[in-house]
Every structure is written in C-alpha cells, then in structure tokens.
C-alpha cells in the first residue's frame, strides 16, 4: 500500500509539473507575440501616420500613436452603434470584430461600459455577444443611443472634424463618444488629475486634437506587463499628449480594454499588446469602438 501511494503521489506531481510547463510555454509564446520594444514610424494613408514608441524611463512603456493631419481629408470618424438600433444596450465584441463589422481601417476601444468583471482567465464578463450598457453619451451616424452619465465629458465628430461637445452640440454631431475624464483642456493638465494620490500606471486609450483643429491623435499605451510596458498615470498621459502637440484630450476606457487595430495589407491587425484577464495579447470584448474609415482604402481594397 505505501508503495502504491508513493506511485500515485509521483504521478500527481508529474502531471502538475507537465501542466505548469505547458502553461509557462503558452504564456511565453503569447509574450513573444507582443510588438518589439523598438521605435517605428509608418505612413498608413495620406495625412495619417502610425508611430510605435518605447520608453525606458520612468518605467518600461510602449506607446502606439496614430496621428492625423486634419487638413488632408479623405477619411471620416465613426462610433460603432448597438446591434439593434432600437436598443440602448450593445452587444460586446472586440475592437477587431467591430472594425471588421463596420469596415473600419483604424479603430480603438471606446466607451466605458457595465456590467464588467475580470476575476480569472476563465471567469470574466462580457464575452463576445453578451449585452453591455455604454457609460456616457454615444452617438452613431447622428443617432444618440446612450446618455447615461450625461455629465461626463465627450468629443463630437463630423467628417474629419473633432471638438469637445458642449451643451446642445451632441445632437448636431454625426458621431460622439464620452470618457470618464478630460485629460487636457486648452493644453492645461489639471494638477489634481490623479486626485490626492497619484493614480497607478495603467493601460490607457485616449483621443486628442490641437487647438487649431489641424491635427488629431488616437493613442494607446500598454500596461500591467512588468518589464515590457507598465502603463501611465492619468497625469502622465495628459503630459504625454501635450508633448505630442494636443490641447484637448479625452480619456476613453482603458485597462484590459486598451486595443489599437489597423488595416495592414488588406487585413486587420492588433498593433499593441492587450492584457485581458492577466493574459497577454488577449482581446477584451468591449461596448463600442471609435474608428476611422479611409476613402483610399475602400477604393483600392487596402494598403
């Protein structure tokens, strides 16, 4: 009997070791899929440029920037709508799935949403197709489908134009999206942006533009990945956007939602390193996306 018990224990230990090695190999493989910690610049379309930037100070940070020359034209902003036009709730999908469904060449995750939980790789909500409620204003093709938390700051979009929405302006906008905080207003970062204590560095997604409305930016910063990219605080994000040249910046949903999708070579690619449920390169289903349709891409079928 003791000999049999020893064999059972040994088999259990060997099985556990095999599972652990398999999980480590899978995790390592996912880490290898992350974009390299190198700088790169690519012209996507006339007036639209993509930059990948790596910073080692004050901590490892990977930033992905899409810069728009708003004087060029040739593209339109788009906020994805709910599946059912008569419903306020949307059906959760990843930013890549939303970009594919609505024929977007560029997209980032958009609004904050609820309900939400992220307990473990196997225990989270929402999954693709689950109903979620957009937080803040959301307008798609002129139709307002959410005014939850109407006091939240919001950006309006008409064709290439982008501006902070004021009272009465939302109904006149073709597209609109809200965020939990305006990080920059007239180039000023609030000294109390992070509250009494600095906010922790996290993955961030923001949209911004300059005071002359000649340039705009979609920016995602990866985070929660020690040694690779550990994110930025809200104050750091505001300062970073100001250094890029922005005067107005809206903070969109971040954390594990943070995703940038680009059409490259006729196919949609995730350009950053999402970190959902502690799994690198795992894309989170989100409520909606802020995207861009490029006329040249629709005419020639891609890059």
Entry summary:
With 303 residues, this protein is of the alpha+beta class.
Description of the molecule:
There is one protein chain. The chain folds into two domains: about 1-30; about 35-300, no CATH class. It has four helices and 25 strands. It has helices spanning about 1-30, 95-100, 235-245, 295-300; strands spanning about 40-45, 50-55, 60-70, 75-80, 90, 105-110, 115, 115-120, 125, 130-135, 135-140, 145-150, 155-160, 160-165, 175-180, 180-185, 190, 205-210, 215-220, 250, 260-265, 265-270, 275, 280, 290-295. The strands form six sheets. An eight-stranded antiparallel beta sheet has the order 1-2-3-19-18-20-16-17, with helices on one face. A hairpin with a 5-residue loop joins strand 2 (about 50-55) and strand 3 (about 60-70). The longest helix has about 30 residues, at about 1-30. The radius of gyration is 21 Å and the shape is globular.
Task: Describe how the helices and strands are arranged.
Layout lengths: L1 H31 L7 E6 L2 E8 L5 E9 L5 E5 L9 E3 L3 H7 L4 E4 L3 E2 L2 E4 L2 E3 L5 E4 L1 E5 L2 E6 L5 E5 L2 E4 L10 E4 L2 E5 L2 E2 L14 E6 L5 E7 L12 H11 L3 E4 L8 E5 L2 E4 L4 E2 L2 E2 L8 E6 H6 L3
Antiparallel strand pairs: 1-2, 2-3, 3-19, 4-25, 5-10, 6-21, 6-25, 7-10, 8-9, 11-12, 11-15, 13-14, 13-15, 16-17, 16-20, 18-19, 18-20, 21-22, 23-24
Descriptive tags:
303 residues; 25 strands; 4 helices; globular; alpha+beta; eight-stranded antiparallel sheet; five-stranded antiparallel sheet; 18% helix; single chain
